[in-house]
């Protein structure tokens, strides 16, 4: 017989202590981990523009073909930034940070729009001041090295990151982590409870016998402690069953 909604509710109420315990344990572990081990991550960025214009009558005039060419070159520039050619020079200029080119590449992100000549170089670090310094340095080194790499001088810095104290951590906050831990632990604990009940096919009391087998209970064998064995020599009382049911007999088993 498949359980109905009342049966599901009975299972949840019966195992509510286990569900609450798992949820509280997971949320507590998340809070402790965030307090002791998790570090905030900051992101600083520098904006550059890729721009080339024709000179007509002594004036720089934009050309649509050149603009399209500049936009197409941004994808190439993204690949160049994330190479040891640029990052090794950045690491060499800041030996105090003891960072390798590979570590700089992993922490660097380059963003741009498909229809814009502006691109942004972002650097992530656990130190706000270090994030600002390295983001700006990557942009400057790229600007200085691109004429030798591509034989074209068309990169200009638009804006740099200058205020480490104004950076806000981009890592997940404690509130979000606790909410996520609560939801995941609640789903996991409820699933575990229902799975345990589904796998358990034993009959635990007279009510289960009536419910699942639709049969009366003939006898129930209880357990007593060995220390209680000598306290009474009289047999366990025999109680009369309901009208029409076989007589239920209760025994006691020595443990």
TrEMBL record:
Descriptive protein name: YveK family protein
Positions of transmembrane segments: 12-33, 174-195
A Pfam family: Wzz
Membership in a protein family: Belongs to the CpsC/CapA family.
Keyword 4Fe-4S: no
Organism this protein belongs to: Cohnella cellulosilytica
Keyword Transport: no
Main location class: membrane
InterPro entries: Bact_polysacc_biosynth/exp, LPS_length_determ_N
Protein location: Cell membrane
Domain Polysaccharide chain length determinant N-terminal: 4-93
């Amino acid at each position: 017989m498949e359980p109905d909604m009342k049966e599901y509710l009975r299972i949840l109420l019966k195992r509510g202590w286990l569900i609450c315990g798992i949820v509280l344990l997971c949320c507590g572990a998340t809070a402790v981990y965030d307090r002791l081990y998790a570090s905030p991550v900051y992101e600083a960025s520098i904006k550059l523009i890729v721009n080339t214009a024709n000179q007509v009558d002594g004036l720089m005039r934009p050309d649509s073909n050149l603009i399209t060419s500049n936009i197409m070159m941004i994808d190439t520039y993204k690949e160049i930034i994330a190479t040891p050619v640029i990052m090794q020079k950045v690491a060499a200029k800041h030996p105090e940070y003891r960072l390798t080119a590979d570590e700089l590449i992993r922490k660097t992100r380059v963003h741009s729009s498909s229809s814009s000549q502006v691109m942004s170089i972002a650097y992530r670090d656990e130190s706000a001041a270090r994030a600002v310094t390295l983001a700006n340095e990557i942009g400057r080194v790229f600007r200085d090295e691109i004429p030798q790499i591509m034989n074209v001088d068309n990169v200009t810095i638009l804006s740099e990151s200058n205020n480490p104290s104004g950076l806000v951590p981009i890592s997940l906050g404690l509130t979000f982590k606790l909410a996520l831990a609560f939801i995941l632990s609640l789903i996991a604990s409820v699933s575990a409870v229902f799975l345990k009940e589904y796998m358990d096919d034993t009959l635990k009391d007279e009510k289960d016998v009536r419910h699942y087998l639709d049969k009366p209970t003939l006898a129930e064998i209880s357990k007593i402690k060995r220390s209680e064995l000598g306290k009474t020599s009289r047999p366990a009382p025999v109680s009369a069953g309901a009208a029409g049911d076989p007589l239920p007999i209760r025994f006691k088993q020595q443990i």
